[in-house]
Amino acid sequence: MITKVNQTIEKYNLLERGERVVVALSGGPDSTALLIVLTSVAKDLDLSLIVAHFNHGLRGTESDEDEKFSRDLSSRLGLIFCAGTMDRKNSGKGVSPEDFYRRERYDFLNKVAADQHAQKIALGHNLQDQAQTVLLNILRGSGLEGLRGFLPKRDGKFIRPLIEISRREIISFLNEAGIVYRQDTSNENRRYLRNQVRTELIPYLKEKFNPKIEENLAQMAAILRTEDEFIRQHVAEALDSSFIQRHPNRIVLKIDYINKMPEAIRWRLFKTILEESSPAKNGFFFIHLKSLDNLLKNGESGKRIALPMGIEARREYDNL
To answer: Are residues 140 and 272 in the same domain?
Structure first.
């Protein structure tokens, strides 16, 4: 498995020699395997590893035991260990519990990386996680960005070295090496849609339709990532053009220029601008992009529409 992870690292240019890397460790099999593999990779690439564990505090004693396991493993490996806990004071304000937990976790990882002067943050998502994410996004009616799944590298900082490794390979690697790991009982909680997809929908699809459904979904995501990158490049070029002007608290688009774009580029441009304008960075869906497109094509000067996060779009003569 170490060889395969090294191939993934090289394929997606995930790591550079001499970098400092924060490894997100929950104590589960994926993140434990990730840490063990990266300790081997670190010797060849002269990496400095820092372990980060975020205690959500949602499972009482079990959560505390996860933290102790992670701390002890880091100590045995001679690595710096950083622990964080979730602040629930601001929870439930306009976001789902899952989104809040994720935001808190990523805020913690970013803080550890900044404090430790780390260039990368390694996450333990594997091939099955990728397949589940793609399937979830299909159920939600996502566009190309959702169907591409997790990126092997995001924002030049977050990396997923196990993204092409199956859970079966991970468990086999840990068992053969005699490495123990923790089990998160909340993964069996059917209240969460992801758990329903993993424990009910995917097994059904594997049995009734295709035993390789997970591999095929991950392959589809890889194909769509290349198409998504093509669109992203065109959007980046558009954002740098003189036809899009940025001002404090507003962005002005030249309608003639935007109207000539292929619809896929135009809609992604709308989504990118909306996300850049919103502190939440999400919450914009098909209906909002369609409304913007209608305003662009059919709106009269002075017409305006309200969008999420307090954003307003207004048509003024030849500008949007």
So the answer is: no
Same-domain status, 298 and 210: no
For the entire predicted model, the pTM comes to 0.87
Answer whether 124's CB lies under 8 Å from 137's CB: no
Query: Does residue 162 share a domain with residue 98?
Result: yes
- 170 versus 186: the higher-pLDDT residue is 170
Cα gap 281→94, rounded to integer Å: 13
265 lies in a domain? yes
Residue 103 and residue 19: Cα distance in Å, rounded?
25
Question: Hey, is 319 helix, strand or coil?
Answer: strand
Q: Contacts from 222-229 at CB under 8 Å and sequence distance 24+?
A: 224/144, 224/147, 224/148, 224/149, 225/148, 225/149, 225/151, 227/144, 228/144, 228/145, 228/148
Residue 260: how many other CB atoms lie within 10 Å:
10
Give the model's pLDDT for residue 102: 85
Average per-residue pLDDT for the chain: 92
Residues 28 and 128: their CA atoms lie apart, in Å, by 15
Task: Give, in degrees to the nearest 5, the angle at Cα 198 between 110 and 140.
Answer: 75
